[in-house]
Amino acid sequence: MGSHTGSFGRSPTFKSLIWRIVFLHILAVAVVAIFLPLVLFWLLNSEIDQLHRDAMRAQAEVLAERIVVQPGGVLTFNLPDSLKGLYSEAYGRYQYDIRDADGRLLFSSHRRTAAAAPRASESISGAAVTREIDGKRVRIQVAEDLAHRDVIIDDIVSNFFRRVGWITIPILLILLATDIIIFRRAIAPLWKASEEASNIGPARTDIRLPTEQIPREILPLVTAVNRALDRLEGGFRVQRQFTADAAHQLRTPLAILRTRIETLGDHAVRQALHADIETMSRLVAQLLEIAELDTLVLDPGEIADLRAVCAEVVASIAPFAIAQHKDIALRGTDAPVSIHGNAEMLQRAIFNLAENAIKFTAKDTTVDVEVGEDGSVRVRDCGPGIVEAERELIFQRFWRADRRRSDGAGLGLSIVRAVTDDHAATVAVENLPGGGAEFTLRFRLAEQGTLPSPLAGPLAGAGVSPR
């Protein structure tokens, strides 16, 4: 942690997760605090203007009711005493103009003649209504002197929550959405680290969690995890190296032992010892194979011809099948099947499946290796099948259904599983209706036009173990 202590002091304050969230939240609240009063101010002004127009229109309606046509066709306007004070020049707050259809001023609350009266747009502002009174059209305009207008507080308060209060709901929703965006941006480096962590496994122990942009509160945890991964990788390396070294060291004693057995006079004993040595040699070869698979990193751009790989396997294992009075056949498509994969690793996996099938199929029967155009390989035998409860156990290292058998150590199918895992492929097993088992490998097809890598050549050191 000493290497990171100095960086903490040089880091800006917002590198802290808490300060980052607080800072962004303050920005969000500041933006809302600026725009919300502007919106409310506009809504309040709109409400005041609407109340003013409604009040003026109501007054104009009252004045229209006081206009009467006399028998001679003359219009008269009789303003009641209760309203005279309201429209008096002494009060000076409200005024009205009543005009005919031609715009001539008929009645007014201010002392001006019709000829001298200014235009309505210059003197009257407010609301206007037009009425037909005994066939005569008149226009009543009522206005308030805005210089002396008093705000109608009670009306504004009573109508504000009814017409404006609803805006609080979308504001809260906006704040909630803003908070979600803020938190997502704040913890984005943690998501990136978690995605990297999901790729860590026995085959990829070299991956480390990124420390760039990690908040100060989380950085010690990420650093501790990376150091734990360093220790785990060291442990895996020691284990793999031990397996490889042990297998290499066992090869020489086995070769010497095989040579000395040839000097024995008893043929039966010599033959039994040879069988034991072959079993041990196959075990050593499989241990070396597992060690290689554990350290091998597959190139994502590598392409292999699955059909050619299977043909190579069938040709290599055919003598083994014939020696046991069994047969093996290659079926399926005759065209190349390009997949993402390493040809040598694929050979090892399919060889183990084929040899395993040959050992368990009945005599005078055939093991089928079928290649599909969809990137699948099916290996079928005519053996006893596999109990459903053991279909996952058979892929574990050193697992054997019959511990008394000495012709294998239970590593062959674990090699198959390791190869499929490295290729992001799948392996499945099921029993056939007529007896026997079928193993299915499914690989990712390569794009059209890509060239497969050449085959690795003859198989060396490939082995198999019973299920």
TrEMBL record:
Gene Ontology CC: plasma membrane
Ranges annotated as spanning the membrane: 21-44, 164-183
Keyword Amino-acid biosynthesis: no
Gene3D superfamilies: 1.10.287.130, Histidine kinase-like ATPase, C-terminal domain
Keyword terms: ATP-binding, Kinase, Membrane, Nucleotide-binding, Phosphoprotein, Transferase, Transmembrane, Transmembrane helix, Two-component regulatory system
Enzyme Commission number: 2.7.13.3
Subcellular localization: Membrane
Protein name: histidine kinase
Organism of provenance: Bradyrhizobium amphicarpaeae
Organism lineage string: Bacteria, Pseudomonadati, Pseudomonadota, Alphaproteobacteria, Hyphomicrobiales
